[in-house]
Design goal:
Layout: E1 19-24, E2 29-30, E3 33-34, E4 46-51, E5 56-59, E6 65-67, H1 73-79, H2 90-96
């Protein structure tokens, strides 16, 4: 008998996941400054990505993406909730988060 959970309950290894994402509705303040999309000026309702290399990227509601050097994987882990599902495509993940 295996001590492992059944396959449908196992989390894929980190190297098999392109990244993690969470929704951040309120303004995002980093080092005392509100982050603003450099293309459209949006300042809230971000999707925050923690990429495989532990870098952080922000995506505004309009779909513009920018790297955020003021945040790291440790910040993401402190602020994200538990992973509730995995998505085979970026688009499905964004739809799940309301984007």
């Amino acid at each position: 008998m295996s001590d492992l959970p059944p396959p449908e309950l196992r989390v894929p290894p980190r190297q098999e996941v392109a990244g993690l994402m969470m929704r951040w509705v309120q303004p995002l303040v980093v080092d005392g400054e509100v982050r603003v999309c450099p293309e459209c000026g949006a300042y809230r309702d971000w999707i925050v990505f923690c990429m495989r290399d532990d870098s952080i990227c922000l995506r505004c509601r309009a779909g513009h993406e920018t790297k955020e050097s003021g945040l790291d994987a440790a910040w993401y882990n402190r602020n994200s909730g538990p992973v509730d599902r995995f998505h085979p495509t970026l688009e499905e993940g964004l739809r799940h988060l309301g984007h």
